[in-house]
Amino acid sequence: AVVSTQSTGTGFILPGKPGVICIEGSVANCREFNVRVRAMNWQLLKLQHEENNLADRRFSDFREMIFDVHGRANTHQDLGQFRTFLEEQKLGEIFSILFKF
Length: 101
Description:
Layout: E1 10-14, E2 20-24, H1 27-38, E3 62-64, H2 79-88, H3 92-99
Parallel strand pairs: 1-3
Antiparallel strand pairs: 1-2
Helix pairs in contact: 2-3
């Protein structure tokens, strides 16, 4: 189950491999969200990137994103589609930060 973000912010979760969580909101609310998510059972969860003082939010809600899932267990997301999604949100540089491309 995804942690409720009603009081914490907006963004998205990209489940599977790779898994990505993007949360936007006040610093306090993002930290609260991080604490609640870390309390769940994850194989590996680490903060890859953090920005402060963003002028405006890119998302209006918190949602699950799915892009042409494939692979042996149908858990691998299409990274090309994910990159396009980030570029459409004016967040293209985040792809390089997350995946070191």
